[in-house]
Design goal:
This protein is α+β, with helices and mostly antiparallel strands. The protein is built from 13 helices and 34 strands. Bound molecules: guanosine-5',3'-tetraphosphate.
């Protein structure tokens, strides 16, 4: 087998994706069920329970252990029915941060989990916008169908209206809430009935399939469930959108599945459809040193990748940090010497790691779509490109609208030097954003997407630089970059004008309402949430 053939085979098997959802929609449960159905675990239910919760992924940082949750996003790799799954962890809850957004850029596809009783929630909307921006195709899983929820048609409409994307139901629930027994597969025209085999979905659910013409289905379903099912299926056939894989891959339509991750009903058919629909790693856009845009082919271009996340202080004795790299092309091998485009120097990637179901293992080879973690002796910054051939840089990672703001000072003024050094390091790593008054001023403001970023900042300043800090939150709830003539920008009274590190003007708003009002008052300006 020649080299390209083996890289092509490995690439075509890869499915690299992230699960996007609002906290509590069932992302962890779904991830765990993926491990169950792939055979990586034999019993599900170990990751449950928020209080006694075990981290689904890493627990390297001491703080992670204290909190019992996974703080920074990372990846797990395992086989599933002939494919290699790379699932990126995009933390929600209070551990939502800029890392969550950045990690999403490393995915080729996303699964959007929606709670059937809640519909499209805030964090899902934000993460979906990143998918749209990066043209990442999204599959939708309407979860918790075993609980009383909203009408399936209503949920489909909400996906279309709130997210402005077409939806196509791949299957339809056989009853809802207590009556949820399975799904009707619209492609194969089969009824899939599920049977519980264990308490709380610890084991796989049994599936029985019946052809649409089978009379047993009518007997198995309550008359009102059967009637409603057929009315809705007819409606979908008549009035619904058509489905094309092409349109899905372009991010124009989202295929929708109904399931219950807890009971496993509808889960296996969803995973099977997922590996069939989700794209394998494809060409990525990059720019040559002269600014020309190129596509980096995953198979024919020798190894290349980019850093999407830095995780610091995993080994206290070494104070090292780990750079997580998404492999974009070629084969990666241990000890590979690569060109670091920004630093214009060569580096040896000597201690690569991967995460297999939560365990850190040394990795010898990786292919496009894989995530590798390398020890980072202050060499890497977020967005850095590394490659064997050099000469190009992947598209820069977007910057995201911060939503929480604070002033932070060293408690002891004598520790100012350590504080400045630590803060600079954290800003360089992309752990926190620094803002200054616009057009000028010396006041330093810190900004983050999630509260956890501030907690990590304070923790690391104390732990790594020996600096205790005073934290004063500022009364702003959202922000936007302002594009347009700043001399003619009408700032709302309670808003604050600042500039980011690149000197780009931003407005901080006391409420989302004020932001909307400001946009209306300034039709000649653009208020931008994500800066590419
Ligand atoms: P997250 O990672 O998206 O935040 O959600 P997670 O999977 O932790 O699920 C949140 C809660 O919803 C959990 O309950 C989980 O058991 C429950 N859940 C997930 N999927 C389903 C489903 O399909 N049906 C039902 N009925 N519940 C579901 P919890 O009470 O917070 O924790 P636990 O003690 O039950 O684990």
């Amino acid at each position: 087998m020649d080299d390209f053939t083996s890289i092509r085979e490995a690439t075509e098997k890869r499915r690299t994706f992230a699960i996007i959802s609002h906290p509590d929609a069932g992302k962890t449960t779904l991830t765990e069920k993926l491990l169950l159905y792939s055979g990586m675990i034999v019993t599900a239910g170990m990751v449950k329970g928020r209080k006694g919760r075990k981290a689904a992924t890493s627990d390297w940082m001491a703080m992670e252990q204290e909190r019992g949750i996974s703080i920074t996003s990372s990846a797990m790799q395992f086989p599933y029915k002939g494919t290699i799954i790379n699932v990126l962890d995009t933390p929600g809850h209070e551990d939502f941060s800029e890392d969550t957004y950045r990690t999403l850029t490393a995915a080729d596809c996303a699964i959007m989990v929606i709670d059937a009783s809640k519909g499209v929630e805030k964090q899902t909307r934000k993460l979906f916008e990143v998918c749209r921006l990066r043209k990442i195709p999204v599959l939708t899983l309407i979860n918790k169908m075993d609980m009383p929820g909203r009408e399936p048609l209503d949920l489909m409409n909400e996906v279309e209206n709130v997210l402005q994307i077409q939806s196509y139901a791949m299957n339809w629930p056989l009853g809802t809430g207590k009556e949820f027994q399975g799904v009707f597969d619209r492609e194969t025209k089969e009824y899939l009935f599920f049977t519980k085999t264990s308490f709380g979905g610890a084991q796989k659910a049994e599936i029985t399939r019946y052809d649409a013409s089978s009379s047993i289905c009518q007997e198995k379903l309550q008359p009102h469930v059967y009637k409603q099912l057929h009315e809705e299926l007819d409606l979908l056939e008549m009035a619904g959108n058509a489905f094309s894989k092409e349109a899905f891959l372009q991010g124009l339509v989202t295929p929708v599945f109904f399931a219950s991750a807890l009971t496993n009903f509808g889960i296996e058919p969803f995973f099977d459809a997922f590996i069939h629909l989700a794209p394998c790693p494809h060409a990525r856009l990059a720019t040559l040193t002269d600014g020309t845009e190129i596509e980096v082919d995953p198979i024919t271009t020798p190894f290349s990748g980019y850093v999407f996340k830095l995780q610091a202080n995993m080994d206290k004795r070494h104070r090292d940090s780990m750079a997580f790299i998404r492999v974009c092309s070629g084969r990666f091998e241990r000890d590979l010497i690569v060109k670091h485009v920004r630093l214009k120097k060569e580096v040896r990637l000597s201690r690569p790691h991967s995460l297999v179901a939560g365990e850190r293992t040394t990795l010898d080879v990786a292919y496009p779509g894989d995530i590798i973690g390398v020890i980072n002796p202050a060499l890497f910054a977020i967005g850095d490109t590394i490659s064997v051939s050099g000469g190009f840089q992947f598209k820069p990672l977007p910057q995201f609208q911060p939503e929480i703001f604070a002033k932070i000072y060293p408690k002891d003024v004598g520790k100012r030097k350590g504080f400045d050094k630590g803060v600079l390091q954290l800003i360089d790593e992309g752990a926190i954003q620094l803002l200054k008054p616009y057009p000028e001023g010396n006041d330093l403001l810190f900004a983050a997407v999630g509260q956890l970023q501030f907690e990590v900042m304070q923790y690391r300043l104390r732990d790594e630089y020996g600096v205790e800090t005073i934290f004063t939150p500022l009364p702003y709830q959202c922000s936007a970059w302002v594009i347009g003539d700043m001399n003619h920008f009408a700032k709302p009274t309670n808003a604050l004008l600042v500039q980011d590190r690149q000197g780009r003007p931003m407005a901080l708003f006391s409420s989302p309402w004020e932001k909307e009002y400001c946009a209306k008052q300034n039709p000649g300006h653009q208020l931008v949430d994500v800066r590419v």
